[in-house]
């Protein structure tokens, strides 16, 4: 990363940000590296992890935002009839990311899925476009779950920890626009308990 940072800076790309380590295996190792390397601490802008809903204490105090940089939508492969239902489980996972893990972003991979049905992991997308030649796409329930959050909570809004909770059987996420003091609260009940 140090090499890339230097090369980017030399070529006037000094505003490019680094997310690290985006790892599945031992995703929190980057925290140890950041704590032991001051130069790396300056280079890394965001700690990114995949497929986890827990942040260790050392990550919470590393001085960097934490992102769920490859999250799963859980939509196409889960139906509304399952317990917990796919949509409710997805909403719960988004809220858990912010409330329990104190992450500041939930980035789905992929949101738009264009994999053929025979490809592994072809059931992760929210918007399915696996036959682009005919112009058809499927808008799953996941799109509406994401819309529930993104239509009301805007970039720059702050999560209010004291007004958010995640404990059985209920969960809620409260966000506030720091400029207008508008609020948004997303509530849910954990199904199947």
Oligomeric nature of the chains = single chain
Instruction: Give me the CATH architecture, please.
Output: Alpha-Beta Barrel
CATH topology name, in short, is TIM Barrel
Counted by DSSP, the helix tally is 6
Strand content bin: 25-35%
Outline type: globular
Write down how many β-strands occur, each being a DSSP E stretch of 2 or more residues. Answer: 11
Could you state the order of secondary-structure elements as H and E?
HEHHEHEHEEEEHEEEE
What is the distance, rounded to the nearest whole angstrom, between the alpha carbons of the first and last residues? 45 Å
Q: Sheet bearing the most strands, described?
A: 4 strands, parallel
Describe it.
- With 193 residues, the chain is of the alpha/beta class.
- Helix content is 26%, strand content 26%.
- The protein is built from 6 helices and 11 strands.
- A 4-stranded parallel beta sheet has the order 1-2-3-4, covered by helices on one side.
- Helix 5 runs parallel beside helix 6.
- The chain starts with a helix and ends with a strand.
- The mean pLDDT is 86.
What's the gist of this structure?
By secondary structure, the protein is an alpha/beta fold. The protein contains 6 helices and 11 strands. Strands 1-2-3-4 form a 4-stranded parallel sheet, with helices on one face.
Key structural traits:
6 helices; TIM Barrel; 4-stranded parallel beta sheet; alpha/beta; 4-stranded antiparallel beta sheet; 193 residues
């Amino acid at each position: 990363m140090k090499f890339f940072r230097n090369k980017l800076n030399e070529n006037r790309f000094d505003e490019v940000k680094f997310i690290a380590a985006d790892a599945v295996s031992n995703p929190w190792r980057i925290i140890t590296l950041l704590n032991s390397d001051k130069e790396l601490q300056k280079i890394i802008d965001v700690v990114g992890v995949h497929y986890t809903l827990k942040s260790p204490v050392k990550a919470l105090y590393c001085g960097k935002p934490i992102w769920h940089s490859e999250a799963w939508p859980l939509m196409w492969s889960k139906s509304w009839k399952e317990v917990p239902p796919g949509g409710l489980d997805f909403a719960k996972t988004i809220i858990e990311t912010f409330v329990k893990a104190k992450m500041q972003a939930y980035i789905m991979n992929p949101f738009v899925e264009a994999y053929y049905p025979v490809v592994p992991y072809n059931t992760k997308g929210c918007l399915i476009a696996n036959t682009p030649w005919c112009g058809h796409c499927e808008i799953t329930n996941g799109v509406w779950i994401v819309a529930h959050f993104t239509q009301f909570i805007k970039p720059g809004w702050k999560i209010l920890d004291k007004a958010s909770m995640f404990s059985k059987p209920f969960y809620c996420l409260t966000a506030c626009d720091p400029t207008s003091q508008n609020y948004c609260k997303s509530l849910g009940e954990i199904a199947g308990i």
